Amino acid sequence: MSYEMKVKEQVQALREAGHATILAIESSCDETAAAIVKDGREVISSVISSQIPLHAMYGGVVPEIASRKHVESVDPVVDECLKKADMTLADVDAIAVTYGPGLVGALLIGVSAAKALAYAAGKPLIPVNHIEGHVSANYIAHKDLEPPFVCLVASGGHSHIVRVDNYGEYTLLGQTMDDAAGEAFDKVARVLGLPYPGGPLLDKLSREGNPHALNLPHVKTPGRYDYSFSGLKTALINAVHKLRQNGQEVPAADIAASFQHAAVELLSDKAVLAAKENGSPVLALAGGVASNSGLRNTMNDKCQKNGIRLMMPPPVLCTDNAAMIGSAAFYRLMRGEIASLDLNACPSLKLV
Ligand code: KG4
Ligand code: ZN
């Protein structure tokens, strides 16, 4: 029987049973990750191999280095993940992989590995959108969460407010007009001399500073749920340069705290407004920036005041990982959305 025929029968059986254990691979940026996830909600094992130390000396991700490191890491990471779960490839029902958005060379490593595993084991191949993966991390953290709900996705490359209408169905409510939230965090951190990726370090530093030390511009955007971080970032960077030119000391903690406060107010105000105006009793957070301590605290307060239930994955499920890909893959599989073996990487893949 051909691979396609075999897989078609399996998908039908899995959909009828409503159960599947999925091996997922993620390699869209600077983490090589694999996870085994049962029924979209239960993580059996998860392994994340970070390349951050390799890129830190260049101040950002170097795509060519990322691809080379993914080549080295993907097989050992998958092996370790299977070993941790005490499973072999024969024990999983399908192979899932992030096919976009992300760095094309990095994505291709995961896609090629997943295709090879799917073909060798004769299992279905499930293509997953990385952003959908971030949203789906909430299904792992909150077993009772079901669409519809509003979700803020804030990562290094994206800042979206989406309405999750159903599994795999999204309405874009707003997005950034310029920099992504994580990108702005990283750029401000860099000016303060913090190594890449500066977001988490800026978060830590900001706890020691005064959030009202700097007068920052009020951000205006055309859409009520749209974001803009570039003006805020530039104002901060200019303030630092001015202090340095005048030979004055740069109060790094105050600058970090002022930026974080302004960015968090902006992110939380618009996301809460979107949840309220869309009649969503739930607001979910997703993406690397969702692990920011200021954002988590402020969102908690604002959601409580507005009678909205806040859902957020633990920090390890907010930053890049493969468990979130395995979760999103389950719902795709249940809809019969699988890929053929000519699946390609889509660096600019959109969620909506
Ligand atoms: O979702 P993610 O791991 O990768 C992308 O898909 O982009 O997000 C990474 C981004 C980086 O810009 C990183 O600095 C930021 O998330 N980030 C944070 C924090 N942790 C990660 N930004 C602010 N505060 C944090 N605690
Ligand atoms: Zn990500």
Could you give a short description of this structure?
With 352 residues, this protein is α/β, with parallel strands linked by helices. It has 12 helices and 10 strands. A hairpin with a 4-residue loop joins β1 and β2.
Report on this model:
The structure is a single chain. With 352 residues, the protein is an alpha/beta fold. It has two domains: 3-136 and 319-334, 2-Layer Sandwich (Nucleotidyltransferase, domain 5), CATH 3.30.420; 147-314, 2-Layer Sandwich (Nucleotidyltransferase, domain 5), CATH 3.30.420.40. Helix content is 46%, strand content 18%. The chain has helices spanning 3-17, 52-56, 63-85, 104-121, 130-141, 181-191, 199-206, 230-245, 252-277, 293-305, 315-318, 323-334, and strands at 21-26, 31-38, 42-50, 94-100, 125-129, 149-154, 159-166, 169-175, 282-286, 309-311. The protein has a five-stranded mixed beta sheet with strand order 3-2-1-4-5, sandwiched between helices. A five-stranded mixed beta sheet has the order 8-7-6-9-10, with helices on both faces. A hairpin with a 2-residue loop joins strand 7 (159-166) and strand 8. Helix 5 (130-141) crosses helix 12 and helix 8 runs antiparallel to helix 9. The longest helix has 26 residues, at 252-277. The radius of gyration is 21 Å and the shape is globular. The two termini are 36 Å apart. Residues 130, 134, 155, 320 line the site of zinc ion.
